[in-house]
Amino acid sequence: MNLVVTIDSFRLAQVFTISRGSRTQADVLTVKLEDDGVAGFGECVPYARYGETIESVQAQLDSVRGAIGEGMTRIELQNALPIGTARNALDCAMWDIEAKKANSTVWQLAGLEEPKPVTTCFTLSLEPPEKMLEAATRNRDMPILKIKLGGEGDLERLRAVRQGAPDSQLVIDANEGWSVADYHQMAPAMTELGVALVEQPLPADNDEALLGLDRSLPVCADESCHDRASLEKLHGKYDFINIKLDKTGGLTEALALKAAAEDAGFKIMVGCMVSTSLAMAPGILVAQGAHVVDLDGPLLLAEDRTPAIEFNGATMKPAHSTLWG
Predict the structure, then answer these.
(1) Residue 222's closest CA among 204, 196, 210?
(2) Quick check: pTM over 0.85?
């Protein structure tokens, strides 16, 4: 197979801010595998939180270019590259080309049931309370709002969102931005305002403190959970895990992680980076039956792939095979 890697940028509908910074565009790496006139595609978003850059991910992809040309399989890929975004893009492209060569679909090759539409959260980025009130009011018809927090004034932000969207279910993502004291301060208000889930309140390297906390609200591991090897350290700290393909290193490990996590008693959230419909397409397969789906990347963009995943409000249909899978 021949490997082609491109850097693509997609404008965001508005500035997107979390506790670690802001962005105005989504910069993604697109992987294309070509063989005998058939092409498979994958997408990834290098993430500085995990020490990744566009250049470092390109270097990882280049490191296996020769092996891909010699016929490296998707199973061999799992050991050829570590978990992370480079392996994700390649893994998803391999699934795509396998399905096309077999005149089949990825869900059939993976032994899954035919995917159905799913309802995603819609994310409100971290802003001053008055701006978050405006954003919540604009999106009050979204059934689930995910709120980016993680800074001074979080309590006011939360109350502003609830005022603007009184009927929406609320999910909070602190992106490791809280201390134990912050959690204790926020917990009563979260309960009072009907928050359903708190995602990664404490830094991943300091989440042992969760063992001693009264988790009256479910807590979800994001930065603390990457692949199946992560699960052992999560017991007693978290109730949910957030599966993101850029963390797991692709659909292959994501499906295995989902099965292992469910067997271990964790509930499942499926998330994404700010990216395009190409990145969401395999995520929808993992999201089948998940308790919380957060695959709203395309809704945050001013421009997307063609063809794009079809949304009806917060409900997203499985990708058409001309996009992926």
Answers:
(1) 204
(2) yes
